[in-house]
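Is this the right way to post structure tokens for a design question? Let me know if I should format differently. Anyway, here goes:
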């Protein structure tokens, strides 16, 4: 059951965090508009698209900067409590520092659950709208930049492999297509074509300059055709997924997408895994950053709130720096994504334990 003290601190925790977000998001929107307004006017972007973009922008960046907002808001109102000697009065009444932390942990639980649900359902949709707008209106015509569309070689199941040298998303057409079928590690047949085009009406493919070579024990059988319509068990567009596709998928679809890409031997699998693991690491960071913020700001300092805020800003940006560096390291190297994503939480978790022990003293 919550006491008056719990309700008082919990109210300050949640309200300060909310106000911090509401203060900084308009600033971010203003800066973004000032940078992109000329491009929007030049491309004659509809007002409805701009309004939707900034709604997605708000959700996307609130999630992205969530650790900084949370950390600074806790340091802000806890420093106020310390400067007014309210914390000294609370601890002098016989309440332990651990008990004093309880409303903070309850607040962190609310925030982490909200962040988890946002990461699973709301943020993917906002990311999709935000990134699509940027590529459609702000980065040239951008469609090709959204894709890994050159020299795509994929394993589509246990025994079949497919290749296209280039893929055009607008025409749904791939070039220099080949498909190889193996049986007991031996080539059974190979299909090649100058181009392959997806026909959405009947879910078939049209192959131009089609050749199929069946490998036999007594000789190969070659079948050729200038044009051939056929059906395959794959979606050509899946061969060249949007580079940021993982960020735009709800949790269940993301799991299925990662499994499919793993089976196909995708070179971007670490990028997708980083997105998946961050859905869990960001909510957990709420507890770690809450403990650090309370430990840093609960002591009344001679320099007042300025010292606490300076320490808080330094630690918050150190956390974001580690998060970005190890995220890129996992995406661009063979470094295990799960370790890279969780490394900032591990480091700051150890720091939280150390600071908490000193604060108790």
């Amino acid at each position: 059951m919550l006491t008056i003290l719990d309700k008082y601190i919990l109210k300050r925790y949640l309200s300060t965090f909310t106000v911090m977000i509401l203060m900084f998001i308009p600033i971010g929107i203003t800066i973004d508009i000032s940078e992109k307004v000329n491009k929007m006017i030049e491309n004659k972007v509809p007002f409805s698209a701009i309004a939707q973009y900034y709604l997605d922008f708000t959700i996307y960046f609130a999630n992205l900067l969530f650790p900084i907002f949370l950390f600074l808001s806790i340091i802000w109102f806890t420093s106020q409590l310390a400067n007014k000697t309210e914390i000294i009065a609370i601890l002098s009444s016989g309440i332990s520092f651990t008990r004093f932390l309880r409303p903070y942990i309850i607040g962190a639980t609310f925030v982490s659950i909200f962040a988890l649900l946002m990461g699973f359902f709301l943020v993917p949709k906002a990311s999709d709208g935000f990134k699509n707008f940027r590529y459609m209106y702000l980065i040239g015509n951008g469609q090709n930049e959204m894709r890994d569309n050159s020299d795509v070689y994929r394993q589509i199941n246990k025994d079949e492999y497919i290749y296209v040298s280039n893929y055009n998303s607008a025409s749904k057409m791939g070039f220099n297509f080949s498909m190889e079928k193996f049986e007991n590690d031996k080539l059974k047949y190979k299909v090649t074509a100058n181009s392959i085009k997806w026909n959405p009406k009947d879910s078939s493919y049209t192959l131009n300059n089609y050749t199929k070579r069946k490998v036999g024990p007594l000789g190969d059988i070659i079948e050729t055709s200038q044009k051939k319509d056929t059906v395959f068990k794959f979606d050509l567009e899946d061969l060249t997924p949007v580079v940021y596709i993982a960020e735009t998928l709800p949790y269940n679809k993301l799991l299925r997408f990662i499994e499919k890409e793993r089976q196909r031997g995708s070179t971007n699998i670490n990028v997708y895994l980083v997105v998946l693991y961050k859905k869990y690491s960001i909510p957990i960071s709420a507890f770690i950053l809450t403990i650090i913020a309370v430990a840093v700001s609960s002591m009344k300092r001679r320099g007042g709130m300025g010292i606490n805020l300076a320490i808080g800003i330094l630690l918050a940006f150190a956390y974001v720096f580690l998060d970005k560096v190890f995220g890129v390291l996992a995406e661009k190297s063979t470094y295990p994504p799960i370790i890279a994503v969780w490394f900032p939480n591990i480091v700051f978790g150890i720091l939280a334990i150390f600071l908490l022990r000193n604060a108790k003293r």
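Format looks fine. Someone answered above. Worth noting: Residues 54 and 303 are 39 Å apart (CA to CA). Residues 4-141+267-360 form one domain.
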